[in-house]
Fold these 2 entries.
Entry 1:
Amino acid sequence: MGKIFNMFLYIFISSFALSYAQSCNNYTFSTNQIYATCVSLPVLNSHLHWNYHSNGTVDVAFRHTGSTASQWVAWALNVNGSGMIGAQAIVAVTSPSGAVRVYTSAVNNYGTGLEESSLSFGVPRMIAERVNGDLVVYASLVLPNGRTRFNHVWQVGPVNNGVLSMHSMSPDNRNSVGEVDFITGQMRAGGRSGDVSRQRRRNAHGVLNVVSWGVLMPIGAMSARYLKAFNVANPAWFYIHAATQTSAYIVGVSGWATGLKLGSESSGIKHNAHRNIGIILFALGTLQVFALLLRPKPDHKYRFYWNIYHRSIGYCVIILSIVNMYRGLDILDPEKKWKNAYTGIIISLGVITLLCEALKWFIVLKRKKEEKRTHAGTNGSIGDNGYGQSV
Ligand SMILES: *[C@@H]1O[C@H](CO)[C@@H](O)[C@H](O)[C@H]1NC(C)=O
Ligand SMILES: *[C@@H]1O[C@H](CO)[C@@H](O)[C@H](O)[C@H]1NC(C)=O
Ligand SMILES: *[C@@H]1O[C@H](CO)[C@@H](O)[C@H](O)[C@H]1NC(C)=O
Ligand SMILES: *[C@@H]1O[C@H](CO)[C@@H](O)[C@H](O)[C@H]1NC(C)=O
């Protein structure tokens, strides 16, 4: 089913690419340069022409039609990621004198002013001109790592008093991303299908992990710590705790697996740290689940040590999980909407924990007092129910 769908998608995209190609391959450049391949990009009146050489270089001409002197134009390869962050851009700006300045800018944040900086690959030649309302950027690129297929992104924005301002957020300006293969000439029409399915997988990864590691596991730990103390559910607290953590673990492992798949498609310091913490978490989480099977009987002399071990690993997992949720949400959603929502959840859990903690101490102290007064402390009070010392 999926295969058939992919095949149709492929045919659809290829015919798109072909029809685009036909409408731009008769353009005559002022230099009379002939390019073997050309593709009209789906948004922002842009066309990409190129010749690929077997030594791994490509000569491109990026053409923005209907361009005005008060606009900047950029075209970029995103070598390791997709979209704006990581884009290795070639930028063209028309100066007041009418000359076109062209330079490179590696984009690493959303607040960029497209300042000049060097790219992660070589650009031995770069010129730009303005012809009949078209802005044309010519550049030769030394493609990195012998690769020929890249995500690319192109953009047009306003220039105010010589300052490059942020592009608008219209659908066209947001959809100006795609994938280009310099050998086959194949384009994803805007790369949308790839980006959409990848974004869907990223979201799934985020939701699964936030629900499991980020929310259920802390709740599972709270159920162990407080239900037991309140004596409301004894020994049911144990089954509630075990069931919560086991389901969190199962959901968490599927979230973790989607993350590994995503991680194999991206790199960078942020991604690597997030992945490494994820792997540590998986190892500790697995240890916790299997430790249950090795749990000594309540009166066993090692039970005390097992309890210490189980709790310290448990708290480590929770702290690391929360840290990694934030790292992941930073990567997933630079606009911080998810992050703010998660912060809300964590604050609520924190407040509930504080209240429970206060109540727990109140109950414990009260019980101790009663025991002292009657000299008849019941042997079945907290901490003596076979599930370990509390507090
Ligand atoms: C290129 O071909 C298209 C149709 O294939 C035509 O509409 C367009 O006018 C041609 N452009 C030039 C510059 O010849
Ligand atoms: C690659 O080949 C092209 C075309 O033959 C040539 O113009 C260019 O200088 C070569 N680049 C390198 C780095 O060898
Ligand atoms: C892309 O990743 C490779 C390998 O990790 C690295 O060498 C290169 O600098 C990265 N490029 C960018 C633009 O981040
Ligand atoms: C608690 O139990 C022990 C034996 O299990 C018994 O000797 C002791 O008297 C009990 N204490 C109270 C306060 O009931």
Entry 2:
Amino acid sequence: MTLRHGREYLAIPGPTNVPDAVLNAMHRPAVEIYTGPLLEITSSCLEDLKRLFGTTTGRSYIYAANGHGAWEAALTNTLSRGDKVLVLGSGRFATLWGDMAAFIGIEIEELSFGFRNAVDPAAVEARLKADSAGEIKAILMVQVDTASSVMNDVAAVGRAIRASGHGALFMVDAIASLATMPFEMEAWGVDVAVTGSQKGLMCPPGLGFNAAGPRALAAHRSAGLRTAYWDWTKREGPLHYEKYCGTPPEHLLFGLRQAIDMLFEEGLEAVFERHRLLGEATRRAVAVWAEGGVLAFNVLDPAARSSSVTTVRSEGIDPQLLRDYCNDTFGVMLGEGIGELNGKGIRIAHMGHVSGAMMLGTLGSIETSLGALGRARGKGGDRAPAASLAEPLPAPAAAAKTDLRNAGT
Ligand SMILES: *Cc1c(COP(=O)(O)O)cnc(C)c1O
């Protein structure tokens, strides 16, 4: 028996669900690329990206590329062969970014905090103070690591860098976090920020973004690794065509315009609060399941658990069995464990175009699957997520007299 007919639900941390409105915005004929409506879409998206990244003095760039392309753009525009960068590891993705840097001739030093902990700002400050010769040219960190689901405190690490008096550029990957939680590039001392289209921005994969602050733009002038396609300066040319170093990815831009409109219409504060509540619902459910000893949080410090994705370690159940059962029976596709948790965990996304119903459906499907798989678990996990969404929300007007939440008790 299966209940998977109906809309399949993708609960993986990217690509995320693309709203119908975004799909519809893309469903139109191609347009001319030198004049017409595309020019306005480009200039408005570049402006709005600066707002999303939190910069007024910086510049933004759009690439026909995925997140890896945005990584490469950030490195090649600011660094030279032989430069040293400090990679702050808190899972998998900063390390992969560092691997890419090593491939193109940059020297790497990794300061790792393991797979279950956030970056410690004090350790960063100490390392930078020890670099009195100023050998470290840049620092690479993620805001949210999509493998471990660690959420780093970008503001605190930015303060630590400033406190050290070190001049290295601070580069932050906000691919799994932008438009799901606050990001304030300028206020936090971030010099380069990168993201992609297919996570919090609710678009199909295929667009990568850079935002560069004044210090990064200054470093850019003497960077030795610059190449034509990624080059920020070349993309500042007067022709629209130059903004993309070739034909613009038109349909993805139609989608992006619509997605950003939806984010601003909801209001960024409301978007962040929605993600916080959906993340909290997930964590409450996992906490109940963890009582049975079958599943456990990957991230040890509750304050470092992300609002966009939750990585769960499976301690007494084959995670593939759970993923298969959830998908085959309910039509919910959960993320698989990657990196250290390959074959040993699952990832539950609460990122992008996600409603309470989608999240509760996902958690209820996991809960029911755990039950069906006959594993020992804590009681009442199916009710925990509903309760955590109900508590912070105001009671509806009609329920003011007879509190529906207490009905039947
Ligand atoms: C998804 C992701 C990436 C990689 O993005 P691609 O589009 O797959 O290249 C990099 N960093 C983080 C934090 C991510 O979540």
